[in-house]
Amino acid sequence: MKKVAIVLNSAWQAYNFRFNLARSLKNANYEVCFIAPYDEKYSKLIEEEFNFHHIKIDAKGINPVSDLKTMVSLYKLYKRIKPDIVLNFTIKPNIYSSIVTGVLDIKVISNITGLGTIFIKQTLVTKVAKLLYKIALGFNNKVFFQNSDDMNLFIDNSLIKKEKTDLLPGSGVDLNKFIPIVKKSDDKLKFLLIARLLKDKGILEYIEAIKIIKNKYENIEFQILGAVGVENNTAITEEELQVWIDNKLINYLGVTDNVQDVISEADCIVLPSYREGTPRSLLEACAMEKPIIATNVV
């Protein structure tokens, strides 16, 4: 039985976004394991069905010493568990795991589900990221993108050879889980934004729109579902969020593992993001037959 290692920068992502993929691979007679930073809740949930290997990954940091330690840890782990193929998701696994698999001559597939903050504003970090991508993706057998803009950007900048690329129309949605549900009747029209609280997700634009609309209409509720205080240089602070709550601009719903329950009670899903791969929250909304409002961006 061939072994597939799925590598991500968080156990939460592994459980919420890649679990059905792992099950499908398992049903296709592959041995599957997950590699990600340990999480008290989600690592244990994963371990109910799959082997889980802890690896320290500084998901948002730019400390080369920390990243080198990650590569050394991956090298030792791959030597021990001997995967036949490695399946990478998220930026640092796409880069550092790919380099390690190249050194060890292990087959590897990376998934570039979006390019994030460093490709929105061109900085020195962007140039370094492009160089690292070029080195790392050279070791890949295949690299999947979620939109043609991102794929063409990498090809045009000679970061990858065209024949190694392919398109996937998003990460997929479980259509047994995300089904149309009739909303319970109430007198409020509910708009819902599902995203980590980052400026790059258009949170500030959402707030400005709310201020305008609340001056014109009544019986409208604006909601936000997603983590606050995440490690990102465009992150919204808890203090900023509290001001919006205190001013009755938004209803903050926190985070959940049952996002379909929240979507079912909304009238419209909003995502004013600056750049995406293929936004999972919009795919989920469409699967549940909810109208969506989004920005015209990559």
Blueprint (SSEs and pairs):
Elements: E1 3-7, H1 11-17, H2 19-27, E2 31-36, H3 42-47, E3 51-54, H4 64-81, E4 85-89, H5 91-104, E5 107-112, H6 124-137, E6 142-145, H7 148-156, E7 165-167, E8 189-194, H8 203-214, E9 220-225, H9 238-246, E10 251-252, H10 259-264, E11 268-271, H11 280-287, E12 292-294
Parallel strand pairs: 1-2, 1-4, 2-3, 4-5, 5-6, 6-7, 8-9, 8-11, 9-10, 11-12
Helix pairs in contact: 4-5, 5-6
Notes on the structure:
The structure is a single chain. This protein has 298 residues and is of the alpha/beta class. It folds into 2 domains: 3-167, Rossmann fold, CATH 3.40.50.2000; 189-294, Rossmann fold (3-Layer(aba) Sandwich), CATH 3.40.50.2000. The chain contains 11 helices and 12 strands. It has helices spanning 11-17, 19-27, 42-47, 64-81, 91-104, 124-137, 148-156, 203-214, 238-246, 259-264, 280-287; strands at residues 3-7, 31-36, 51-54, 85-89, 107-112, 142-145, 165-167, 189-194, 220-225, 251-252, 268-271, 292-294. It has a 7-stranded parallel β-sheet with strand order 3-2-1-4-5-6-7, with helices on both faces. Strands 10-9-8-11-12 form a 5-stranded parallel β-sheet, sandwiched between helices. The longest helix is centred in the N-terminal third of the chain and has 18 residues, at 64-81. The radius of gyration is 20 Å and the shape is globular. The two termini are 39 Å apart.
